[in-house]
Design goal:
The chain has 157 residues and is an alpha+beta fold. The protein has three helices and five strands, in the order βαββββαα. Strands 4-1-2-3-5 form a five-stranded antiparallel beta sheet. It is globular and about 45 Å long. The two termini are 27 Å apart.
Length: 157
């Protein structure tokens, strides 16, 4: 069951940043984890969800950085996919590894940036190997689909 609760603000580890969430998007993976269907989503938590705070895609501002963080500093605007790192984007603050995040393009709003990580990467994965898309090309992505390799398969945290 999805509900609003007060939870402690996470503390970032050495290689993590604390992100003040400005926007997140909901994907089918979040829905499947919430409902526990298909059954494979119950691994690690057959009676209670493994991840207490869902949300893969995040966009926000760095509130704090761990000691080993070299890519970001407080105030930076970032976005990314936390599906391989513990989720948590449906909260006011989330801690995640710096490698799961990138600087938010200035041309995108926070809601736009939060819609990019999974949908955008799935669309790019669908285009890879097609031979007609090369670095430097511009591609219009009108929607995206499901990647059979599983969410987070395109990067590791």
């Amino acid at each position: 069951m999805l509900s609003a609760q007060d939870i402690p603000t996470p503390a970032p580890g050495d290689g993590e940043v604390l992100v003040q969430v400005q926007a997140s998007s909901m994907n089918d993976y979040d829905w499947h984890l919430l409902t526990g269907k298909p059954l494979v989503n119950r691994i690690g938590g057959p009676f209670k969800p493994k991840h207490q705070v869902l949300g893969c895609d995040v966009a926000g501002r760095v509130a704090a950085a761990g000691r080993a963080v070299t890519r970001f500093r407080p105030g930076d605007q970032v976005f990314g996919d936390l599906s391989a790192c513990g989720f948590g984007a449906f909260a006011e603050y989330v801690a995640g590894p710096q490698d799961a995040l990138a600087l938010k393009p200035t041309a995108l709003t926070f809601p736009q940036a939060a819609a990019v990580p999974q949908a955008g990467s799935l669309a790019v994965l669908g285009l890879q190997g097609r031979g007609s898309v090369h670095p430097g090309h511009q591609v219009l992505i009108n929607g995206a689909g499901r990647h059979r390799g599983g969410p987070g398969a395109e990067h590791a945290c």
